[in-house]
Design a protein that fits this description.
This protein is mostly helical. Helix content is 71%, strand content 0%.
Length: 208
């Protein structure tokens, strides 16, 4: 008997998530409204808040799904060029909507436990660390640096670049701001891993 209410609760939560997922697919993260979610899920607004403290918690859950899909195909980088490509792909995933960065910053720590964003970030760091360890073993990166720590550093650079992309100069449009932030990302990476050299991402930077 005790399982039936729990099953109904799980089904209601699943309906809310499915409804929100459909809305985000149609409008993007910025277009999600609590009223639209409960209407599509055929439930009450109070029921929504029984499952999620606020709308952003639901958005964070959906963003984790989106990011997981976008970074799932990243191969462990085996060269400088592949590393640059992975950085570009994760940068795009982090910065394609302003709401993504806001949610990443808020829910990448303890408040986001169980929503999945911290797991995605951990997987990104692990992927970079694995690639850097292999490149280090082949003499492509100077020995001595801890690959796990370097991977953490690259993700810190990604957060900084994503933030820079959302803060354009007054004379710069959004696309130019993103290109400028992407240039910054590669320059920071070069300074960390290949100081004094030009990046494999030089062509991308020349567009800024």
């Amino acid at each position: 008997m005790t399982r039936k209410p729990q099953a109904r609760t799980a089904q209601t939560r699943d309906r809310l998530v499915a409804a929100a997922r459909d809305i985000v697919a149609e409008t993007g993260l910025a277009g999600l409204r609590t009223e639209a979610v409960v209407a599509r899920a055929a439930t009450a607004k109070g029921t929504f808040f029984a499952h999620f403290p606020d709308k952003d918690h639901l958005l964070a859950l959906l963003l984790a799904e989106i990011l997981r899909a976008e970074v799932a195909q990243l191969a462990v980088p085996a060269s400088r060029e592949q590393l640059a490509d992975n950085l570009d792909r994760v940068f795009a995933a982090f910065s394609s909507e302003p709401e993504r960065l806001t949610l990443l910053v808020r829910f990448s720590g303890p408040v986001g436990v169980g929503l999945g964003i911290d797991e995605v970030i951990h997987d990104v760091i692990a992927g970079f660390a694995g690639g850097l360890a292999g490149m280090q073993a082949r003499g492509m990166i100077a020995p001595g640096g801890d690959p796990a720590l370097l991977g953490e550093g690259l993700v810190a650079f990604l957060f900084h670049a994503a933030a820079s992309a959302q803060c354009p100069l007054t004379t710069m449009d959004k696309d130019a701001a993103r290109r400028r932030a992407q240039v910054l990302l590669h320059r920071l990476t070069d300074a960390l891993l290949w100081p004094g050299t030009e990046s494999a991402g030089k062509a991308a930077r020349s567009g800024g």
